[in-house]
Amino acid sequence: MSFGKLKSARKGKEIHSFVKPESVSGFSDTMKADTSPGPLPSQSPMQINAAAPKNSHDTMVTDEQAVVQHSPLSQASEEQAPPRTQEHQSPTNPTPVKTRESTNSVNLHGCHTDLPSFLEIRESSRHGRGLYAKTALSAGEIILSIIPHVFVLSTPNLEYYCSACAAPAATAGLKRCPKCKTVRYCNSDCQNRDWAWHRRECNALQKWAASAPSSDVAIPGEPVRCLGRIMWGSQKEGLDSVWAQEIRMMHSNRNSLQPSAFGSHTHLAHSVVRYLGVSSPQELEPYGLKSAGDLVDLISRFTTNTFTLTTPALTPIGICVSPTVALANHSCDPNAALVFPRADGGSRVKEPLLSLVALRNVAPGKEIRISYVDTTLPNRLRQNELKEVYSFSCQCKLCCRTTAADPREALWCPKSCGGICPYPTEESGDRATHCVKCNAQVGDVGAVLDALRVGQEALDKASSLQSKDRVKARQLTTNITPILTSAGVTPSSHPLLALTRLHKELLIDSLSSSSPTQETLDEAVRTAARYTAGLQALLPKGHPVRAVALGELGKLLAVDEPAPTSASDYAGAEKFPPSGPPRLKLAYESFVKAHEELLIGFGKKSGGGLLGAEIREAIMRLEKELGIWTTGIRNVLEDTLVSAQRVGPPSQ
Ligand SMILES: C[S@@+](CC[C@H](N)C(=O)[O-])C[C@H]1O[C@@H](n2cnc3c(N)ncnc32)[C@H](O)[C@@H]1O
């Protein structure tokens, strides 16, 4: 059977579904209206005494400050309940300090009744309230499944996703609200279900559009629309309802707001007032706000507790607020993640369902932590964002690590011993850097620093061009990658990893929009493989971002090759990616690994979510296809042997 026939038996290209940067649902960039959510702006720890009265009884000690000498690559298979006293080091002070942190249980005042019996909320002086396991949890266990109090789609996605259930548009398209012409729904069921929420929003959207100075600002950004839904929701549910109380009880950082966030908070407050059509502070009363100060406080609670709404493949599509899930504190080495698996493809009523999934085994008494920021970023960038947006300095074990090199900022050993060298720093007088394994010294430190500077500039520029001028953005990512790799930067390091991801997205985008050439397809596969390798050095097995990247690599490898290399080259082990059956075999292996990891990152019970189901199907298709290949090749070999025997040895 010819290669062409076998290939055409496969389902077509499956590259359309992954386009944007994936992100586990961390907390989101609520202040950047109309952009894809990323990191968030500021807030401050205001003690929410109503939410966390200090009347509690039992006291226990939590982990957190943990451990020095931690390699991000080594993940304990089970986290132990923390000892009563621990040593930790602060990033600035390498001397271990004895710390002891106690937690108190929290009176919930009838709120958070959706909390399962194996979880509890406790409060510590350092982190406020947090979620704690009462019993052992295993990796891949869905800890919580909750429909957020509110969600809104980011403006560009209003056209492509249902505003009631967040499902993507089916082939028949979505039905647009005839009045505001802004939100869209799968069908009238979704529209009817959302009407109680959309009724007031619909009028506000119409008024906003009518007074907008230009068409590109005719729809308010998602933070404004989300706050609108929160305020109307409090009215709809009743100011004394559990729903409204849970919103009020969310943590606020108003008192420690970073000065850089003042402007964006003020701007958001003005926009909300305009959106709601409020003309005096008294008119805020129906929403349970007694003054402009209360509005500022609501905005702070909103920015601190909002997180990204994503597709089952982690594409950010909006923002949402769930006060129960927002009780989870942060760690850069989290033991849980937030995802939207959409496991039950059919039921729109219970979507978007937010799942908190254990990424590793969690011992009883241990705190459940998620990450608010991208943990592939170096310490400095993570800390900046946490300070700026959430008003705290992280002291998790990754941030307090003292090992000599972080794989997020590393060069390969100049003597290729397999070890890595920490990045040289601009600041230090002695800029020399050595391999942590063989102590070889990096020669031209100046050239490395130049490459890193140029790499960061290119990343910033290409990211901003990504939606406006993809060709230019791709030129930048294409040109800068070899500069960083030839400077010795490892695939897991910043900014190379981020550039690789962006390059992969731009390539996938070009494959989706035109008939792919073999060259572009192969480049996309190589880039996806480099990206996956980079992630594997940083994220634990089963991390959703890593699982999705593996699935994406499998999908790219499984795309029909426009111009496969001839059969005689199939065995060419040097060539990556290979062509024909070896390529399919690689696709199969990537899918199998992806599936295994999706079962952790998106929950075993959900079968790894919608993506897990898709990949399971792809595995079955490929098993069939590879089976055909194996049989086909065996038949050809047998035929050749038989005919050779019939003919007899060639005469001398
Ligand atoms: C989404 S809330 C988390 C729940 C919050 N602790 C509460 O009491 O409601 C985020 C806020 O919790 C605090 N927080 C979360 N993780 C922390 C950490 N690792 N260290 C210190 N504070 C943390 C910060 O004040 C942050 O702005």
UniProtKB/TrEMBL annotation:
Residue ranges of the region described as Disordered: 1-107
Extent of Polar residues compositional bias: 88-107
Residue ranges occupied by any MYND-type domain in the UniProt entry: 162-202
Any one Gene Ontology molecular-function term assigned to this protein's record: zinc ion binding
Start and end residues of each SET domain: 117-373
Domain of life per record: Eukaryota
GO CC terms: nucleus
Zinc listed as a keyword: yes
Name of protein: SET domain-containing protein
